[in-house]
Amino acid sequence: MPVALITGASKGLGRALAAALAGRGWDLVVDARSAGPLEEAARKLRGAGRGTAARVVALPGDVADGGHRAALVAAAGELGGLDLLVNNASVLGAEPLVRLAEQPLDGLRAALEVNVVAPLALIQQALPLLRVSSYLPSYEEVVRRGEGPFSGRADGNGGAYDSHPYSENARNAGLSDSPPYIGTGGAILNISSDAAAEPYPTWGGYGAAKAALDQQSAVLAVEEPGLRVWWVDPGDMRTDLYAAAVPDDDASGRPLPGTVVPGLLRLLDGAAPSGRYSAAAAPGGVSSR
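User: That's the sequence. What structure does it adopt?
Assistant: Structure tokens below.
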């Protein structure tokens, strides 16, 4: 069975994606900082497997801790390897969010540590397993290249991966004709935010961390052409993270995290090329950004 490692999987988008993968027969390594909610999630995930109980290793801890990261990767190895790494765990840097004039610097350091440094450190440790994954190439048997769910779409997902998507930036001018990157190993899914690209008041610290994650992901995609690297803006969601960020906002009308999962699965099912995507809160919704 394929193996996924998902951080921040006790609730929200991480838990919803883990449930979808378990339902497809994936084995999982999941983490969260709180042991109780994580074990509760793991029990339900074990019962979601196709035909037999999914193997789920739940390791509570902080992704900012090097020993915890090493244990996560080791657990994936014991399950047989690693085919998908999902960097979903995140912190805001201030709760509730504040303007940059009041942004606590220790909070900004924490946001950078969890949203940027920890994902890279986990990727570095997981690369040997991801490079030898054969899960995504198995799609070649059923989906010939160019005939996946992204080909021929008006949103441009059928085209070659552009390693410099923001061509209006003078530094990247003329570089958008990069050849397509054909991954032969596993996949990395980094959960980003529209705050990485849009200047929303009070979202400056968190947005800066996610913008750094985006750039880091883009460079990784160029340096590791054998992998697929996706950095995805999941859009507005009704999560505890959002409630902590803007506690006075009425989030009852925002979509639940599960509505984003079909868009993420489309990336996996279509073996989508590396790039930045936006997962719309509608079944199957996904578009390149």
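Residues 3-288 form a domain with the Rossmann fold fold (CATH 3.40.50.720).
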